[in-house]
Each structure stands twice: as C-alpha cells, then as structure tokens.
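Encode chain A's predicted structure.
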Amino acid sequence: MIDPAFSTDGNIPTSESTDASRNGTISMQSIAMQAEQGDGDPAEARKDIYHVAQTLYNDKTDWVTFFREVLGKEGVVRRNFREVRSLHEFETTDDYSDIQEMLVDLWKKNPGSKGEPEATRVITVRMPESVHEALKTEADERRTSMNKLCISKLLQPIDDKFIPSGRKEKATK
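Encoded structure for chain A:
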C-alpha cells in the first residue's frame, strides 16, 4: 500500500513530516519501498504500482532507473506480483500498457541514464539468418538501430504459447 504521505490526487507533498519528499521530489529509496504487499488485492496493487510509476515519470526519471524501479527484477511490479500467473495477468492490464508507454516516452526523451550508472551487459543471440535480416530491415524501416529495436522487443511481455519449451537445465556440480 502507498505510504500515507503520498496524496491521492497525484501531487507529491513537500511536507517535512515525511522523508518521502525532498524539494518536491521523492527519493528513489522512498519510492522503492512504496508497494510491497505481494500478491494481496490485485486492484490495490495495480493502483499502488501505477502511482509509483506515475511519480517516477513525472519526476522525469531516466528510463533505466524507471525500468529498474518499476519493472526490474526487484521493482515494484515483481514485489507485488510474485506468482507468475498474477504477474502475467497484470501484464494484460491497461495500467501495465500505460507503464510501458511511460517507459518508452522516457527512453525517447533521454536515451542515456542520468541516474546511478548501471553496468551494461552483452548477450549473444543465435538466430537464423532470415530472422536477422528481418530485424535489420525492420530497424531500417523504423529508422532505429537493431540494438534499440531488440531492446524494445525484449521489454514487451510475451504470451507463454509463443515461447518454445524444452529448456535444458544446467547440471549442478
């Protein structure tokens, strides 16, 4: 549930009675602690998550920080929807779609990260040449890089029916 120091009208209080506010903006640590109920009332969780996302968006947080705090491995979405089924249900809501739009808008406005620097990782993806060429063509048509196109595609939820099963488990030593 959202801290009572947050107003329900979407405005951020500047009262000194709470550490959630500093010069009209909320600290990242305070935001990270906002929605913690985890698979409680889904409607309340959606409301809380949306409020945190909207606050970060209004603060013009960089897209990397927004992603990490809202959609990342330990972001408010995963802290609220710990069960895979409930997470997938949330991903079909208008709230989730709005959050995705906020993320994209922040990315368009500032593709770099102005927050705490986060290490970049490199992955190698094996794919048929025809898939590679299709991605290259799509990136050209959209006037973007293949890297940006692939990141955009990776950030979108996907239905399980479109993911082949049969992943081999790594042997433990």
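The mean pLDDT is 78.
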